[in-house]
Amino acid sequence: MNLEKYPSRLLENAINEFARLPGIGKxxxxxxxxxxxxxxxxxxxxxxxxxxxxxxxxxxxxxxxNISDDExxxxxxxxxxxxxxxxVVENIQDVMLIxxxxxxxxxxxxxxGIISPMDxxxxxxxxxxxxxxxxxxxxxxxxxxxxPTTMEGDTxxxxxxxxxxxxxxxxxxxSRGVAIGDDLEYTDEVTLGRSLVNRVLYENSLGKQPR
Length: 211
Hints:
- With 211 residues, the protein is α/β, with parallel strands linked by helices.
- The protein has 2 domains: 9-57, Helicase, Ruva Protein, domain 3 (Orthogonal Bundle), CATH 1.10.8.420; 80-205, 3-Layer(aba) Sandwich (Dna Topoisomerase Vi A Subunit, Chain: A, domain 2), CATH 3.40.1360.
- 39% of the residues lie in helices and 13% in strands.
- The protein has 7 helices and 7 strands.
- The chain has helices at 9-18, 26-37, 41-57, 92-101, 128-137, 151-164, 189-197; strands spanning 59-60, 67-68, 82-89, 106-110, 142-145, 170-173, 200-201.
- The longest helix has 17 residues, at 41-57.
- The chain is elongated, with a radius of gyration of 21 Å.
- The chain starts with 8 loop residues before the first helix and ends in a 10-residue tail after the last strand.
- The mean pLDDT is 89.
């Protein structure tokens, strides 16, 4: 039962929509909506139009699955990038984080998630098959696994390693400058950059994990 009383149905509707965003509660939503009401109409219209345009026109790169304005993203289409190395990441935010380190000049492959049986996410639900296809059809010499050091991230990395094990490609992973249990988004740029530069063979990082 909704106990909040709003002076306007339009205000309430707007608050409810903002509150659907992650990390935004009703109080934060109210502050945001009231802030927008204090802005010129042109500014609010510009915001709403940019959101609609984003949702309607944004594309995913047909090569790496990063977000893009075109069929192929700026990274994949850049001839100065090292096309023989692919960094495998969980999501689009990870691409931006790694790019900010300025320590990597290869390509990416965005999985769009990680294997999580508890959430009903299996290997076929994320972009692992397309990664295997890229490796089999291109002259890739190295795959860097830059996934979270969580149980789900490690499971995904190990699955990918097994899928690529019989292919002529080196599989590496970030050095343990990234703390165990961390997502990349909680790692500072310097640490992440060093972890990329000092990456190690994935097989050497397995320890006693069964193969």
